[in-house]
Write the structure tokens for this entry.
Amino acid sequence: MPILQHTQDHPRYANGWEKLKEIDGDAGEKVIESLKDIAPDLGRYIIEFAFGDIYARPGMDLKSREIATVAALTALGNAQPQLKVHIHGALNVGCTRTEVVETILQMAVYAGFPAALNGITAAKEVFQERDARVNELNHA
């Protein structure tokens, strides 16, 4: 039996792609692009399931979903690239830097200090990237 291949015009894919761009912007698009030559189905699953099905659900706003995602990725302790993408995402959907830092600090209690330290390092890098981008735009 052939596997159903969803394309960009499939509603789940289209909805997921729009949600991915809304939350993660260029960073999310780069993740999907990086999978095209090795695991395009993984990119499709991320778009359709994670963003098209879960992030698009009506029961929770995007800010809350991103806070939960930052907490989970911090607790995992081994997902720095994804954590950085979702810290950007949290800021993109209205979280403050303080809320991001407090979420990561909360994880020290449940995931341990090493996980929280790694999370804070990721947040610091994201904040620096965003500050550098703002400075570039202001001096352009």
Summary: Residues 23 and 89 are 5 Å apart (CA to CA).
